Amino acid sequence: MIAEVIVDVPAQQTDRPFDYRVPEKWSGMIQEGMRVTVPFGPRKLLGFVVKLKESSEFKSLKNISGLLDMEPALNEELLELGHWLADETMCFKISAFQAMLPAAMKAKYEKQIRLTRGMVVSDLLPELQPLFQKTGTMKWDDAQNNELLPLVKKEMDRGALELSIKVSNKGNVKKEKFIKPLLDKEGLITQLGEISKTAKNQRCIIEYFLENPIESPLSKVLKDTGLSGYSVIKPLVNKGILHVQERESYRDHYEQHEFQADAVLPLTEEQRGAMGPIERAVEEKRNETFLLYGVTGSGKTEIYLQSIKRIVDEGKEAIVLVPEISLTPMMVTRFKRRFGNLVAVLHSGLSTGEKYDEWRKIQRGEVKVVVGARSAVFAPFKNIGLIIIDEEHEGSYKQEEMPRYHARDVALKRASYHHCPVILGSATPSLETFARAKRDVYTLLTLKSRVNQRALPEVSIVDMREEMRGGNRSMFSELLFEKLKERVEKGEQSVLMLNRRGHSSFVMCRNCGLVVTCPNCDVSMTFHRVQSQMKCHYCGLEEGVPNVCPDCGSDHIRYFGTGTQKVEEELGKLMPHARVIRMDVDTTSRKGAHEALLKRFEDGQADILLGTQMIAKGLDFPKVTLVGVLSADTMLHLPDFRSSERTFQLLTQVSGRAGRHELPGEVVIQTYTPEHYSIQLASEQDYEGFFMREMFLRKQNDYPPYYYIALLTVSHEDVLKAMDTADKITTYIKRHVSPSTVVFGPSASPMSRINNRYRYQCLLKYKREPNLAVILKKLNETYGRNAAQSGLQLSIDVNPFIMM
DNA sequence: AGCACGCCGACT
DNA sequence: GTCGGCGTGCTC
């Protein structure tokens, strides 16, 4: 038998199957989708079997050298999905396959030295013999560190030793010892009498099993008895008193938490109205896409939960995608309470091992529901009954690295394979989605009212230019400051949002106007107060703050703009009594910090929660009655056609944070452009008004959803090379596309230089471009080919989410 | 991506 | 004469 293998080399020239012979001993075991190790040139690599066949065109085949899986890592559906993903996003097949699996299943390559076949340990130099005694191999690094390489070299020249590469899983399966008594109560008591009085620890263990005569994990036994190490147990096992068995176990991130089952909430009339069509689609196994369009607080999650319940009762599985930042303990708790241990959770807070274990639970069918961020869309379920994408409009569903996929597209693809419905949920759907719902491509389900009948909060817009003219130079308008003070006095909570981290956004010389910019990226650097450092948010460069202007030598250096740190500082001055929690990338980077801060706020340990966008999503605190947006326009003027849409969505989302419970809520939006439609309409919570307005503009400018777009970015350390190549690419495209396609460029990218690489781009807008795949593939081949040598990088993003 | 092969410059 | 620079091309 012959296997076609995609090898673990992400390069243009190796992005095709290579044929290998399957050794006789594995012919019954090997299956498509399994990971294997294969010799590739002088190396040994991981590869995926994509096809099994009887014969090969190729004459001198090598053998597959090892199996890494007992079950296919990718089942038939996922294997096919991988090919589709590679085609669709223009990425290498190997990258597509790896993206669908947990990082733990990537290859770990270890150089090692091994005894040549036919050699025995005693043939070696005496110094080396003990090292090879056990396994006949040793790690290359160990040999190097212990200065053994000269000896090893000698033996290698003689042919006694040889170099080999060990290929293994990056992550490993956790094994745990389980201990149980082999004797009954009587027997244990007898043994207790026979053990010497000095063996205190052994007696302690026996006494433990007298009280708990059941099998327990070793870790539990040790913890309960306060002893440490297996060495205490071993003699008892040897005497035949205890029995030990090593078994696989799962690392459980939520081990410490207990989740009490909760009751199914009664649905409102409106919710039931939305449930009906979903239930019917589920019943009829119809591949229908729903847009569940409901204001914040309208009870979308309960609809998800009850739809999933039906699926699970029928023995089918469900995938729920949630944006990374909304995957809060609150959200997890809600699912765990309803579905207990039938839920797997996948998010970035888990360790590699924990993610691997959740994946294995899914693959083995031990769980029926997955709640997770973007990559959970690849959950290896075999019988999917429903896929849900919450906060459908969120940008985090689009992966910005190599397989540049959108989870929504993958979900729709998988749903069509499984003949199951998809629910897209949002209070502010993306224009693309809402347009499709209006054209009946998706079924629109609307939830107009909040579950508890709470009115939407009252929103005030403050014109900061007026404030400025009125002599208020602080970052708080009078209105916001008054309201904030009032809340603090009343003991109610407020949320303040500013979508910028750091202290001030930039540092400028007032004498010559120089702005401190990153030497690698041509973007202004951000001042961070705590470390008293300038940071580049794109390449991560950190530098000290200049005392004098590096250009003109003037000491009139001033900090401009406002960051979360500066707001915190000013709040401290203006309202010394208010307790503030600041939440941004800097205070939440430590694992678990995010949760801890929110918990503190929830427990009422602070009056004000100050943060960046991350506080805008999904949080639900009963005591929050005021939401302040310090500067609504920060993201409005970015060179991206979606900036209005994103501003509208963000403002609508934060506004929804206020007054979700008994107390009525208020929102204050500060802005320098109060007349802008996305700010006006967000304050009125008028999604449909915004939709109409924005659609008109998109139509005028040939943007999605009227046109599809593809963005090609060329980067090179040399400006001329980058410009020149972008020019050639643009010319090529112009010559080959159909007349209805519009090609822009080449132009400097809005981020003209990142990490010392100059960036030029070319943009295409098209309605139907039958040649697109061929053209892009061709470009990828010609310019991606010698990427390493020429230093040129070409990135192709079909349907980009961020234009920069 | 690695790694070998291979063809031209400055050295024991 | 050789060691070593990195251009070119191959890996079943």
List the SSEs and their pairings:
Elements: E1 2-7, E2 18-21, E3 35-40, E4 43-53, E5 62-63, E6 66-67, H1 76-89, H2 93-99, E7 107-115, H3 129-133, E8 137-139, H4 140-145, H5 149-158, E9 161-169, E10 175-181, H6 185-194, H7 200-211, E11 216-217, H8 218-225, H9 234-238, E12 242-248, H10 269-283, E13 289-294, H11 300-313, E14 317-321, H12 329-339, E15 343-346, H13 352-363, E16 369-372, E17 384-390, H14 407-418, E18 422-426, H15 431-438, E19 443-447, E20 458-463, H16 464-469, H17 478-490, E21 493-497, E22 506-509, E23 526-528, E24 533-535, E25 542-544, E26 557-560, H18 564-574, E27 580-583, H19 585-588, H20 593-602, E28 608-611, E29 624-629, H21 643-655, E30 666-671, H22 677-683, H23 687-700, E31 708-716, H24 719-736, E32 742-754, E33 757-766, H25 772-785, H26 787-790, E34 793-798
Helix pairs in contact: 1-2, 6-7, 10-11, 21-22, 22-23
The protein binds a DNA duplex (12 and 12 nucleotides) through residues 2, 4-5, 7-11, 13-14, 17-21, 38-43, 56, 58-62, 788-789.
